[in-house]
Amino acid sequence: MAWYDEAVFYHIYPLGLTGAPKENSYGEPVHRLNTLLPWIDHIKKIGCNAIYIGPLFESVGHGYETTDYRKLDSRLGDNDDLKNFVAECHQKQIKVIFDGVFNHTGRDFFAFKDIKENRERSQYRDWYCNVNFGGNNEYNDGFSYENWGGYNLLVKLNQKNPAVKDYICDVIRFWVSEFDVDGIRLDAADVLDFDFMKALRQVANEVKPDFWLMGEVIHGDYSRWVNEGTLHSVTNYQLHKALYSGHNDHNYFEIAHTVRRLYEMGGNRPDGLKLYNFVDNHDVERIYTKLTNKAHFAPVHVLLYTLPGVPSIYYGSEFGIEGRKEKFSDASLRPALNFEDYKDAVETNPRTALIAALGHARQQSKALSYGDYKELVLTNKQYAFSRSYNGECAVVTVNNDDSDYVMTLPAGNASEYVGALSGQHVSVNNGTICVNVKANSGDIWLPANGNVDVSPIKVTPITNEDPAIETPVATEAPTVEAPVADETPAVEVPATEPAVDEAPATEEPATEPVIEEAPVSQSPADEPAVSPANSAYDEAFEKGKIAGLQAAVIARMEKNGPVTDQMRRDVENNVYYDSLINWIKSF
User: Fold this and answer.
1) Quick check: 51 and 3 in contact, CB under 8 A?
2) What proportion of the chain, given as a percentage, has pLDDT over 90?
3) What CA–CA distance (Å, rounded) separates 513 from 526?
4) For the chain, give me the number of helices (H) and strands (E)?
5) Which H or E run includes 444?
6) What is the pLDDT of residues 548-566, one digit of tens each?
7) DSSP state, 231?
8) Are 330 and 286 in contact (CB under 8 A)?
9) Between 259 and 555, whose confidence is greater?
């Protein structure tokens, strides 16, 4: 068992939360990171025991065009500020992981600047992929190079170069010795070289017990990345998509199918794939924006906290703030928030109270972290499953209907169960419990014994009429100690600067879940409906574009290693033009 097996993460995009300027002047440090110190108690209060924060290090703009891996971005402060932040988190028993942007650097990184200055004579000419001194680019460098995602602002590192590999491994050692970091989220892990990731895993095993490597992976067979030789976990984009669309479509079959498939991918073992589960992040729209029925905020998060995997909350979403993707900017997904506006949210905001109660329930039950998964009830609108571990059986129930629903469910050996959210006690009769699941809600039924501390936080129902909290328009967080530096950019930023890092351009995952047959006891009315495909995709398919793109994805996969039958099915099931285009770009 490791700390991350019982982790509940809080995800912070610091340049956004602190209201940092969009462009870096490389001026004197402005200590905005210190404004996050009051958030630590809030994070602890809502039941999170780990923070994923990043990007943190010196960069040009949004943070993913790194200038210096060993220096906190001057818009956030200096290295002492980051040391202090991590130390404060550790004092509150909160682990911290950083964003590791090791697939590419910015153009102001020392190695790239040396190539610009010395060209063919540069000792760093092989640090980047496909540097061609017979080419050119929009910066008129007099040479071309491979980039990420079509953006020459992001220069792709040559991870096969031993010098690059050694340099990045030393960066990780520095982060541990300097900041005492507990793990790293690897940006764009789905396009990282596998030998490079194996080297990072060796360093992780060396620097600190239970040092965690989690990778950003969008599509494919997650077990290619999650294993003893490479990463401990990856981002679970497949479940992310299923959680919101399964509620919007009143289709719990989609969610259950996705869970089953991922569980099988991990060998049907609770310790198989411990994926990083989320419902929103800095690259996708806020969950409160995506949900058609805002009351579904409750069952969505009950599932997030109880399904196999490691749950994560993106800063601000515990309050129910809105955030929509814009055509040329992701600023609304990464807003500045003033902590004073939310300091009483657990007591006054039903969404925040729910998140806090779920975090508390997770701490009360080892079964929710280590237990196996067994499906108990499945209809379009109702879903129940159990998580069992060391004699403890936790039962989870959710309901996306506008009416209550009564379930009779097998239970464990306890004589009585209690709802961790409702506080309701139910007796076990003949090995079963009979529970009433409220409309558009859910509960976690735990054995009632002396070790369970139930419902210390009041949870009130969330309704579709609850007003959304608009995304704040402020660009600055609370005033900090140092004056704001001159905002005049001292670096080259093209007009086509990407708004996001490695995120997919669309919300669709690689797999469109197959709808399973309903249980025999279901009525025909409960059969899940299949929505017709978007007409634009139909037209593209008729012209053969989809088939061609699928073939291109398979071809790219084959260059990276063996392609399993499941991987081929992932590609065949993806009939979304934009998603396939982004998949191809990711290689």
Assistant:
1) no
2) 73
3) 18
4) 17, 21
5) strand 441-447
6) 667 767 766 666 666 776 6
7) B
8) no
9) 259
Half-sphere exposure of 47 toward its Cβ, with a 13 Å CA cutoff?
Answer: 25
DSSP label of 208: S
Q: Name the one residue in this structure whose structure tokens are 């690059």.
A: 164
Report cis status (omega within 30 of 0) of the bond before 483: no
Residues 394-417 have a mean pLDDT of: 96
Burial of 302 (0-12, 13-18, 19+ CB in 10 A): buried
Amino acid at 38: P
Residue 464's pLDDT band, with cuts at 50, 70 and 90, is confident
Q: State pTM to two decimals.
A: 0.82
> In the structure, what pLDDT confidence band is assigned to residue 428 with cuts at 50, 70 and 90?
very high
Residues 6+ apart with CB under 8 A from 220: 190, 510, 557, 567, 570
Asked whether the beta carbons of 213 and 226 are under 8 A apart, the reply is no
Per-residue CA distances from 371 to 385, 390, 409 (Å): 11, 8, 17
Sequence-ordered list of residues with C-beta below 8 angstroms from that of 45, at least 6 positions apart, any chain: 346, 356
The token pair that represents 481 in the structure block: 């100690």
The answer to whether the beta carbons of residues 278 and 285 sit under 8 Å apart is: no
User: Quick check: 130 and 116 in contact, CB under 8 A?
Assistant: no
Q: What confidence score (pLDDT) does residue 469 get?
A: 66
Q: How far is CA 137 from CA 141, 151, 209, in A?
A: 6, 11, 45
Q: Rounded to whole angstroms, how far apart are CA atoms 570 and 166? A: 35
Closest to 226 measured CA to CA, from 203, 197, 206: 197
SS3 580: helix
Q: Which two tokens stand for residue 48?
A: 């999170």
Q: Tokens representing 541? A: 């398919």
Kindly list the distances between the CA atom of residue 89 and the CA atoms of 94, 217, 404, 413, in Å, as whole numbers in the listed order: 5, 27, 41, 38
How far apart CA 48 and CA 443 sit, in angstroms, is 19
Report the chain's mean pLDDT, rounded to a whole number.
86
Q: SS3 for 472? A: coil
Two structure tokens written together for 329: 């900017």
Please, what is the angle between helix 79-91 and helix 162-179, to 10°?
60
Tell me the domain boundaries of the chain: 532-585
| Token pair listed for 325 | 């993707």
| Per-residue pLDDT tens over the stretch 466-511 | 666 665 554 444 444 433 333 333 333 333 334 333 333 334 333 3
Q: How far apart are CA 379 and CA 528, in angstroms?
A: 8
